[in-house]
Write a structure and sequence with these properties.
Structural class: alpha/beta
Shape: elongated
Helix content: 55-70%
Order of helices and strands: EHEHEEHEHEHEHEHHHHHH
Radius of gyration: 23 Å
């Protein structure tokens, strides 16, 4: 069993490490987080590995997983090389959605194989995800030598893998941002709009929840064009114009958002009518 070092033991890092341990894919060797206390907390939850708080206290591992913030990937990889943690047989991968494996230049210069692995999943509740990870799609890209190890490892923990190119990583991740992060922002705007119209917060949630859930169900059952309803789908652009003006008067940023969605939604509506 190959050894695994985990650097950046947040939700993504600890969840993946936990499942790797449970499925006996990798043997977790050391875990490093921002402090020794947080490193030890991660080790306690994992039930494996040794906690460290300094790269110079780490021992080289067969595989190193970097689950740090995007802006720390390059610096940390260079620090690993400087600390002598990388060699010709090493594999280093990070879990950024937006950054490609090309961020790991220092590892490549040291002869290590590199990759990026991005689970397309919300990790808001890490402990729940650890028990529900099977079926999660992970996008992967990187050196063939790294993928020879990582693809079977991911499949062994129940993941579905999709290989993408390093050049398309940012655009690919934007899809996840639209589908998850901006969806939250959109729902926040919807709830605020209800409340600005005099609807109590609790009732606003009761109104929005079934509407949003049914719409998402329709999107994935019928496709986006057939799932579209509302004034633009009906061609009622007078209502759209009046509504945009009212929303902008209430909140300019929300009005700008409404306006930005209009031409994109018109394109979906046009496809809907052409498919009839």
């Amino acid at each position: 069993m190959k050894t695994l070092n985990v650097i950046g033991a947040g939700k993504v890092g600890t969840v993946l490490a936990k499942i790797f341990i449970e499925r006996q894919v990798f043997s977790v060797q050391q875990v490093m987080n921002r402090s020794l206390h947080s490193s030890q907390a991660a080790v306690d939850w994992l039930g494996a590995g040794a906690a460290v708080d300094d790269l110079h206290r780490m021992q080289p591992a067969d595989v190193t997983m970097l689950t740090v913030t995007d802006d720390q990937i390059v610096l940390l990889c260079a620090a690993m090389a400087e600390a002598g943690l990388l060699h010709a047989g090493s594999i280093v991968f990070h879990c950024s959605g937006a950054k490609a494996s090309t961020e790991l230049q220092a590892a490549m210069a040291a002869g290590a194989a590199v990759a990026s692995v991005h689970p397309v999943r919300s990790f808001a509740d890490g402990k729940a995800i650890a028990s529900q990870f099977a079926g999660t799609i992970c996008s992967v890209e990187g050196d063939a030598r790294a993928l020879t190890v990582l693809l079977p490892a991911l499949r062994a923990i129940g993941a579905q893998t999709v290989e993408i190119s390093a050049d398309s990583k940012l655009l690919y991740h934007a899809g996840s941002v639209f589908a998850s992060n901006y969806l939250v922002t959109l729902m926040e705007t919807a709830l605020r709009s209800y409340q600005a119209a005099g609807i109590p917060a609790a009732v606003a949630q009761q109104m929005a929840a079934p509407l949003a859930r049914q719409t998402l169900d329709n999107v994935f059952a019928m496709g986006t064009a057939k799932a579209l309803t509302g004034p633009i789908a009906r061609g009622d652009m007078q209502t759209v114009a009046l509504q945009q003006k009212m929303v902008a008067a209430w909140d300019q940023a929300a009005g700008d958002l409404y306006q930005a969605f209009t031409p994109l939604t018109q394109a979906v509506a046009a496809r809907r009518h052409s498919e009839k």
